[in-house]
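Technical note accompanying the year-one report. For the benefit of new consortium partners, we illustrate the data format agreed upon in the data management plan: each record pairs a sequence with a structure-token string. No post-processing was applied to the example shown here.
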Amino acid sequence: MRISEVLAGKSIPGTITINPDATVRDLLALLAEHNVGAVVVSPDGTEVGGMVSERDVVRRLHEDDAILDGPVSEIMTSVVHTCDATHPIEELMQVMTEHRVRHVPVITDGKLAGMISIGDVVKARIANLEFERDQLGNYLYQT
């Protein structure tokens, strides 16, 4: 299974991004509106400038609640692991495990094409395993 297949099966089309100059309050509203745990920080919606998640907010909020009115760029992760839509999902699983990341932006032709979460990966793997199980069952019990 390829990353592009997982992207195609997502219920939320496109990628949710936020400008690096937006406030953390704006970020929280965006996360709540779309019911997501992380977004790509991008000045133009096509390049990846960073990632910011609920965890980033919580960890910084603990230190100083004034961060809510500060820019997202102050709390974002600037070193972002990305993947290519043509690669197998197993490679992405390895990246997520090795680097302990839950969200990975997908880049196609140098531009942001989507985002894959660990939940998307698990859902795709379960669907694939169920399909294989059904195929084996059909093969074994043919009359």
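Partners are asked to follow this layout when depositing records. The two ends are 30 Å apart (CA to CA).
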